[in-house]
Each structure stands twice: as C-alpha cells, then as structure tokens.
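hey can u run this one w/ iron/sulfur cluster bound, need the structure tokens asap thx
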Amino acid sequence: MLQERLGTIQDEIYTCAQCAYCTATCPVAELKGWESYGPRGRMHLLKLVLENDYKANKELAERFYVCTTCSRCEKVCQTDLPLIEIWEDVRSWLVEDNLGPLEPHRVIDASVAEFHNAFREAAANRDAWAGDIELSRKGEVAFFVGCTSSYKMQKLASDSVRILQAIGDQVAVLGEEEWCCGSPLIRTGQRRQIKGLVEHNVEALKNTGAEIVVASCTGCFKTIRDDYPHWYEKKLPFKVMHISQYLAQQIKNGRLTFTQPINQKVTYHDPCHLGLHAGEYEDPRAVLQAIPGLELVEMHNIREESRCCGAGGGVKAGLPDIALGLARTRAEEAEETGASILASCCPFCKTNLSQAIDNEKINLIQKDITELVVEAMGI
Ligand code: SF4
Ligand code: SF4
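ok here u go:
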C-alpha cells in the first residue's frame, strides 16, 4: 500500500521545508495554477497520506501523472531532495495499488510486452526506416534507434545513420533485436518488464562488438546511460553517448566537416533528458555553431533554466492538453528570439513543439540537429 511504501521515504517527506522554490519553477504548476499540481503540493499530499490524514485515490494519482519529470524542481530544491526519484517511485507504488498509471500508459505497457515497441508495430519492421541504407549488425558504433524513430519519425533514424556512415564509422543497428528502451514504462511507474528489457538490450548491444552506443532520442540516451546500470546491476560494457555529443567530438577531431552554409537564425531548445538530467548543454550548441552561416540566438530560459517542451514523463500520451500547453509557451519563447528555426535533438521535443507551432501558427520551423547536419554536410 502507498502509505506503507511512503514509510521508506519518510525522511525525505519530513525534510521538505515547504518553501515552494520548486513550485515557482515548475511549468505544470504555472500552467494549472493549483498548488496540488506542483511539487510542493505533492510533497504535502504525501505527508497527509503517510500520516493517514488522506486516503490515496485516483485524483491524487492524477496529480503525480501531470509531472513531465523535467527535473527543474530538483535543481532548485532547497533541501536537495531527489525529487525525480520520488516522483517515479510514487508512480510505481500507485501502479501497485492499481491507482495508476493513466489508461494510455497501460496501452504502451501491453504493446511493449507483445511487440517490443510502444506503438503496436510489427517487430519485424524495425529496420523499415532504412530504405536503401545498407545496415550491419556488427560495428564499432552501435546506433540505438528507439521506437519513435523506428516507426514514427523515420527520417531521424535515417539521417543519423547516414551521418555516421558518411564520416566513416562502421555502424551497427539491432533490427528486431532492439526492444523498447523502457523509458516510457520507467517514467510512468510500470516496472514489471524493465529488468527483462534491460538485460535483453544490453546483451544485444554487446553482441554488436561496439564500444560506443549512440542514441538520437534523449529518452533512450538517458534511460540506457542512467537507468540501465541500476537494473543491469553492473557497469555497462559500453559507453553511451547522445548523437549531439558524438558529433561534437567528431567535429573537434576533424572527422566531421561542413560544406553547405545554412544562412539562418536558429534557436536551440535543451531537451530535459539531455540538459537538466545529463548536464549536457554545450555539445549540441557546438554542433550548431560549427555550421557555416548559422547564427545561434538564445531564448530567455536556457541550460539549467530551460523550460520543458511538455512531452516527457508520459504526459504527451496521458495528458496531451497539458503537453501542448507547455509546448505553446516554449514555442512562443522561441519565436521571441526572431529565429526562423527552432532546433532540438529529441523526437519527443520535435513532435510536441511542431504541433504547438502548427496549432498556434507560429512563424518557426522545428528541426532536429541531425537534419541541419545532413543539410550542412550536403549528403
Ligand atoms: S519535474 Fe518538472 S514538471 Fe515535474 S514537478 Fe518538477 S518542475 Fe514540475
Ligand atoms: S524546494 Fe524542496 S524543500 Fe522546498 S518545497 Fe520544494 S521539495 Fe520542499
């Protein structure tokens, strides 16, 4: 029961000073305007349940599922509470009590169990994005494609592999042996399949012979880099990099050069799983700034103060109106810079920001960094 589980984090619950620094920075609290939708309110709700002054119910569960797990709150917490761990643990306890997750999250869990991907797509079609690109199962660099790029945003997969092959890497992809990384399940508290997914994917990646695993989805990147060691229970036998980090390294060592100028003003949105979670703010900017003609103009909230696109933590699937509300604010902030392109490097950011741009008729084009790199390489 949730109340018993909360006993394991009672120190954290009583450490919360109720100062509200977290709520002041939470984009969902700002959007919804109610204390219980923000982090301080949730910490207070946990105290009430722990002390048996409030019984957990579906309404309380929904307050935990509005969170995009962006990590802005954790960065400002005055008592250094591990807030993301708390949000994700509480979600898993709500699932145990059948109070969570939200219905669309259950569909994802069932899809991963049956098809090994989040979209009920045939596992045999994992490589369908490749077209005429020649694929290998062995290589020095393994590219973890991710469910979204494999089935829904296939240009991100093909652009990424074309770039890696053009700079001379032997690239391995897993095909049918790539299973969902587990991110949508971990973020929504659905842990029943995670150990199996992690063990399968680590073994499959090991079999490629690669020493470096590259991902262009920041959800896959963060999950494999930060969550896998916990579930695998040992050190991973490879290094995990986001493609923006890998490309910045190749620019530095002279393997990646650009021939085609992009004479545009570009602003960059930090994806939460790359920026706030992994502390990587410089490499994506270094890639953009290496493109001739491109002028990088910054938004008001960037790096540690970056605002979430709204798609993380299962919010896009479970509460799409909240996701789009957050994306609208971010896209408007991007528009204020006068840029013509809003760049990012995550398929979730791309989907959500593009929808907000279309809905609000904002004068911006959303592009993934890999799209800009392909254009600037002329490939
Ligand atoms: S992780 Fe982000 S959305 Fe969730 S409570 Fe913290 S600041 Fe708000
Ligand atoms: S910033 Fe930390 S201590 Fe202050 S209310 Fe939020 S969770 Fe509690």
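The two ends are 56 Å apart (CA to CA). anyway lmk if its weird
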